[in-house]
Every structure is written in structure tokens, then in C-alpha cells.
TrEMBL record:
Residues annotated as domain RanBP2-type: 177-206
Signal peptide: none
Disordered: annotated segments: 224-253
Organism: Reticulomyxa filosa
Superkingdom of the source species: Eukaryota
Pfam families on file: Zn_ribbon_RanBP (PF00641)
Molecular-function GO terms, alphabetical: zinc ion binding
The keyword Translocase is annotated on this UniProt entry: no
Name listed for the protein in its UniProt record: RanBP2-type domain-containing protein
Lineage per the UniProt record: Eukaryota, Sar, Rhizaria, Retaria, Foraminifera
InterPro entries membership: Znf_RanBP2, Znf_RanBP2_sf
Record flagged with keyword Chloroplast: no
Length: 297
């Protein structure tokens, strides 16, 4: 990589009809001195049923907004629609790469040593050492969660059953990776750590937290596979006592965590379960007398 260019891996978010579309891309930035713009080219692999790659090309001025750890919001001009402005967001895997990105946007160049460190990120992602994790701090002084790095560790497997389980877990982990939330008032994208909108101070919607918790709950259920034959845990032809104890504890956990919340969708159900009309004292006394008479007779 020469001076005047920058390449790295990261996540691209595109705002389309008030919804954020997420792509894992390899991006390259080139400075254009004539137009005083920075050209961003991002390539992402298409889905399994499609072949080839998707390419996104944008132009923007060297003006970026920092919206949290390693996250930036940019107003860009698309090559296909040069007259219209679009909103995109970039998120990098490590703090080192994000600093190089800021350096390139501000100075339009990056040193050779910095470029080598940004290109050494492989397909498995960057796994931070314990010393690096202690230095990764959020704005509120909290340490970075290690789960974000552990989700990207690829564990080699040989059996098809374990491969199918890994696909289920990886698909479930995609639900939990929520990095931003959109303000319902001004459609401003904010980091998940912010409780209010950075532009209009609107409180963060409650469904953002509920979606994250439901996704984590789904992942926990996906990690536990059910045995249709009722075998014991570990041996061939087991008695099944270990599996039964696990199922009982799981049923108790599900029954204890089932709590109905009052919303506009289930208001009628809640009204039927808890009617507002209560029985009078005469009706209560009559039912009690009838009960004791039947029991005595």
C-alpha cells in the first residue's frame, strides 16, 4: 500500500428506507486531490445462492463523525446517484485500524508500518491478547467484552453434526451483533451505549434492548441440542437420567421466565385474564356458603 491509499477489513452499514443493511467488506480508500474527495470502494461476498461479489463505490469529503468505539458515520455521494446524499456507517475490528482510518481521513496518507499492520488481519479476525484487552476501554471506563472476540474464533471440526451445530450458532450470533440504533424522531444513528439520541436527545426505544435479550436467549437455546432417543449424557445406550434432569431444569427455567408484558397487541388477552368487573360481597359469601354446605353434605 502506497501513500494516499488505505485498506482494511470492517463492517459497512447502509441506511435504506429507515433500515440499516449490514455487510462484512474489504474496503479501500483513495484520496482524489483534484476534487478534494476521498473515494471509498467496498467489496462484499454475495449470498450462497448467488455468485460473485457486491461492490460499493462512494465519494465523501474528509468529514466523519465518531459514534462510539471504532464506529463512524459518513455522508457520501454514490457513484450511481452522484446528486443525492446517502448515509453510511463504518465499524472496524480493532482500535488500531480505526486510528489508521482517522489518520488517513485527516492527513490523506498513512505510514508504511501502519499499513502492514492493518493488512495482516486474516479471515478469522483479530484475536486480542490479554494485554491488549486490558487497554481496550469504552467511553464509560468499562472493559471491552471478550465475547465479541470469541465469537470470531473458528474451531475446526470434522463431523457433519458438529458442522451443522456451528452453522446454527453462527446464524444465531448474527442476531446478537447489534451495534447501532436509529432514533425514531430524526433517524440519527447512535451507538448502542448511548441512552439518548446525540442529535435530538430522544430516549432510546425499549425494543432495542428487548431484541438483544431475545437474541441472546435464542442463542442459549440453540447451544443445547435435544436427544430424540432419550439417551444418557456421554455414553452409548445410557439410562437417560442425566438428560431427564437437564430437561426438568430447562422446563422450570422456561416456566419461571414466562412473564406477559402489557402491550397494544395483547391488551385484549390481558383484559380477559384480568377482568375489571369484580364479584360483590354477596356473591362471595354465597359461593363460600355453597362450598361449605356441599362439603358438609
Amino acid at each position: 500500500m502506497n501513500e494516499g491509499s488505505f485498506q482494511a477489513r470492517g463492517t459497512l452499514f447502509i441506511l435504506d428506507n429507515c433500515e440499516w443493511r449490514q455487510y462484512y467488506v474489504v474496503m479501500g480508500l483513495v484520496s482524489d486531490v483534484k476534487t478534494q474527495r476521498i473515494i471509498l470502494t467496498a467489496r462484499s461476498k454475495k449470498r450462497k445462492e448467488e455468485e460473485g461479489e457486491e461492490e460499493f463505490v462512494y465519494r465523501f469529503r474528509p468529514e466523519i463523525q465518531n459514534k462510539g468505539p471504532r464506529a463512524y458515520v459518513i455522508r457520501v455521494e454514490s457513484s450511481a446517484k452522484s446528486t443525492e446524499k446517502e448515509t453510511i456507517a463504518l465499524r472496524f475490528e480493532t482500535d488500531n485500524i480505526s486510528k489508521k482510518f482517522e489518520q488517513f481521513v485527516n492527513t490523506w496518507k498513512v505510514s508504511q508500518a501502519n499499513s502492514c499492520s492493518s493488512m495482516n488481519t486474516g479471515a478469522q479476525g483479530h484475536i486480542a491478547t490479554p494485554k491488549e484487552r486490558t487497554h481496550h476501554k469504552l467511553h464509560h471506563g468499562q472493559q471491552l467484552n471478550d465475547k465479541w472476540a470469541l465469537d470470531r474464533i473458528i474451531i475446526p471440526t470434522s463431523t457433519p453434526t458438529s458442522t451443522s451445530k456451528k452453522k446454527k450458532v453462527s446464524n444465531c450470533n448474527k442476531v446478537t451483533k447489534i451495534f447501532f440504533w436509529s432514533c425514531p424522531s430524526c433517524l440519527q444513528m447512535n451507538d448502542l451505549e448511548y441512552a439518548t439520541c446525540d442529535a435530538c436527545d430522544t430516549p432510546r426505544p425499549s425494543y432495542v434492548c428487548n431484541d438483544t435479550q431475545s437474541g441472546e436467549r435464542t442463542c442459549e437455546n440453540a447451544n443445547h441440542s435435544t436427544d430424540p432417543w432419550g439417551g444418557g449424557g456421554g455414553g452409548v445406550g445410557g439410562s437417560g437420567s442425566g438428560r431427564a434432569s437437564v430437561d426438568d431444569s430447562r422446563d422450570n427455567k422456561i416456566s419461571s421466565s414466562h412473564i406477559m408484558t402489557l402491550t397494544s397487541a395483547n391488551l385484549e388477552m390481558f383484559t380477559n385474564m384480568c377482568p375489571s368487573k369484580r364479584p360483590t360481597i354477596e356473591q362471595l359469601l354465597g359461593s363460600q356458603i355453597k362450598f361449605w354446605v356441599q362439603r358438609a353434605g
